[in-house]
Amino acid sequence: MTNLPDEASAARVARAVLEARVVACVNRLAPCQSEYWWQGKLEQAQEWPLLMKTTQRQYAALQAVISAEHPYDVPELVAWPLAAGLPAYLGWVREEAAGTANRP
Questions:
Q1: What residues are paired with 32 via a beta bridge?
Q2: Which residues, 6 or more positions from 12, have their beta carbon under 8 angstroms from its beta carbon?
Q3: Is the overall model pTM greater than 0.85, yes or no?
Q4: What is the DSSP annotation of 51-82?
Q5: Contact criterion met (CB below 8 Å) for 36 and 75
Q6: How far apart (Å, rounded) are the C-alpha atoms in residues 49 and 104?
Q7: Alpha-carbon gap, residue 69 to 13, rounded angstroms
Q8: CA dist 9 to 6, 79, 82, Å?
Q9: What is the mean pLDDT of residues 78-102?
Q10: pLDDT digits (tens, 9 = 90+) for 19-34
Q11: How many Å separate Cα 48 from the centre of its chain?
């Protein structure tokens, strides 16, 4: 997951990680209000979250794309361990994130 400062950068980063084949899917979520400490000040901002589906194997490559494309000095990029999932769906994520899925 990462948050972006505006809709245009969210769309650009989503496209970049998909074209790099380091994720299978990106959900561009509705904007949210974020409140956080930054450089000693309490800040408020509207941000656009991206929820990205990938594998642990592709995490380093995903981090590299996010670091290159994200407009923030220190972009949020967090991952959670997966406890369970539909095997067919998880297989699809593995194939797509690895770039090994069948192409038309």
A1: 47
A2: 69
A3: yes
A4: EEE--GGGHHHHHHHHHHH-SSSS--------
A5: no
A6: 31
A7: 6
A8: 6, 20, 27
A9: 90
A10: 999 999 999 999 999 9
A11: 11
